[in-house]
Amino acid sequence: MFTPEEFIRVITGEIRKLNVKCAVAAVSGGVDSTTSAVVARLALGDKLIPVLFDTGFMRLNETSEIINSLTGLLPIRLIDVKEEFYRAMINMSDAEEKRLTFRSTFYNVLSRVVKDNDCDWVIQGTIAPDWIETTGGIKTQHNVLAQLGIETDKVYGFKLLEPLKDLYKDQVRVLARFLKIPSAVTERQPFPGPGLSIRAVGRLTMEKLEVTRWSTRIVEERLSGLGLSQWFAAVWEDNRTTSEELSKRIKDLGSLTVDVFSIKGTGVKGDSREYGSVALVRGKLSSWSDAFNLYSRLTYGTNVTHVIYELASKGASGGYFAAIRAVVTDDYMTANVPMLSESLLSSIADELMSNKLINAVGFDVTPKPPATIEFE
Amino acid sequence: MPQHSVKFKFLIDDVSVKMGIIGVVNFGGQYNHLIKRRLEDSGFQAKFINPNEPIQVLSRELNCLIISGGSWNIPADIPKLGNAPQYVLEFPGPVLGICLGHQLIAYEFGGVLGSKTPEFGGVRIHVDDEDTILKGVGVEFTAWESHNISVDKEPSGFMVLAHSSTVRVQAMANPRISRYSVQFHPEVKHTEFGDVILRNFAKLCS
Prior knowledge:
The complex is a heterodimer of chains A (376) and B (206). In chain A, 35% of the residues lie in helices and 23% in strands. Chain A is of the alpha/beta class and 376 residues long. Chain A has two domains: 4-186, HUPs (Rossmann fold, 3-Layer(aba) Sandwich), CATH 3.40.50; 199-364, GMP Synthetase, Chain A, domain 3. In chain A, the strands form two sheets. In chain A, strands 6-11-12-10-9-8-7 form a seven-stranded mixed sheet. Chain A has a five-stranded parallel sheet with strand order 3-2-1-4-5, sandwiched between helices. In chain A, helix 2 (31-44) links the parallel strand 1 and strand 2 (48-54). In chain A, helix 2 crosses helix 8 and helix 4 (82-89) packs antiparallel against helix 5. Chain B is α/β, with parallel strands linked by helices and 206 residues long. Chain B has a single domain (2-203), classed as Rossmann fold (3-Layer(aba) Sandwich). Classes of the chains: A alpha/beta (376), B alpha/beta (206). At the A-B interface, helix 6 of A face helix 2, strand 6 and strand 7 of B.
């Protein structure tokens, strides 16, 4: 049974035995990496150097907010590596290629910081679901190396310490509260390492990235305080074709049409990763509550991984599609879609539609499984 | 069951034997860690088991066994399951199959599998018989699923405990030989009464 006191006693004891010269902690401002850095600092004191990378895929004003909220707890150094990440990833399309390239760029940058500071260890906030999904082949989390048999010592020149690797999110939050980490961090919704690069779905362009950044701010503001676990926007090209076969499956639920987007989305079906179709349901539902059953009609026995219900549209395809995603979960291993009202979602959609680059907006109504929480 | 009493004597000094050690056969399914965690959170002792472990070792060290999920298809991928088919047939203590484990138990005892009724995410489960592992769950609940293969017909000697709108065998049991199984995932948080179901099984281990 997990208790924070016992966990800290054991883990700090183990860290002290490692004979660390100096360790760099990669902090993202999220609860996992922040908590792992604070735990490591208990054992290492000033031998720990916490750094925050500005990858260019952060949300609006995110880096300054993180540094402010951690003042007094961790003396964070901000390192601007935007150009390096943009150079590596702009124009890339495939979800796994993006995640793999993010990871290699991230560790090259980290390896340089370790060398510049004459350190020998890296501390990172990997938790159980990260490596379970990565080793299970669902998706590559950027912070998973050791569990894949990658010897960081040989490849990157540092040893890797992951103090939280056997914990789940809810346990990390208990630990973080116990360590008096501010609630702005402990209760913050998770944000993936590759950040907005995987929420600008499909081919990554600067324009799509900025539309994603802008949409994210609106969705995060409008859905905050509702008790959700994670809520955000994802953006991709509004290119789609109608599927008669899928439309037939839901004809009893209203006058509805199902389109399939040109981009793909990640899902998990029967314990295997599926990089499949993203379906858009357009038209009037006889009952709003049926929106939350659409996934069982459209994902069973098809390659569809995400089902989106359209909230607003300017007509013909073209420009960007913005998806609102919201889920409720404790441990992020499975996730449910909250039954938000149509009027709330429509008013958020109207705000998003004020962007002239956005052509249509919808709400992702797919639980995990068969979808994953993110689209890539 | 004579084998049981011998084992009990052999391990009598071990504190954990009062509740039994539960082996979780690990095929790398993403929820396997949750099974271990839920059991430990309820005060039971659980241990991961590599499916290549000889059955003699398991029979000696474990009181009961959970055969959990994974991405393999039954029966096509049975050669990849190590000794698990043998565990299903010969392990002396209670066995609980979850998802893939459910399909494996059905197949090994002569049930019929199909691939026409996949289910993912939340599914309504209707209880036919609130017995053994389903004690205390009521007539209907929501469970979380992630499967392409399903059990279309239970093996003889098994009773069907629950069904969904498309899958006839969501839970089944044969208490005479201590084999129990569920198609859904009781270990994930979103499954209602998941903890109750795992505890019902774990209690059979003492």
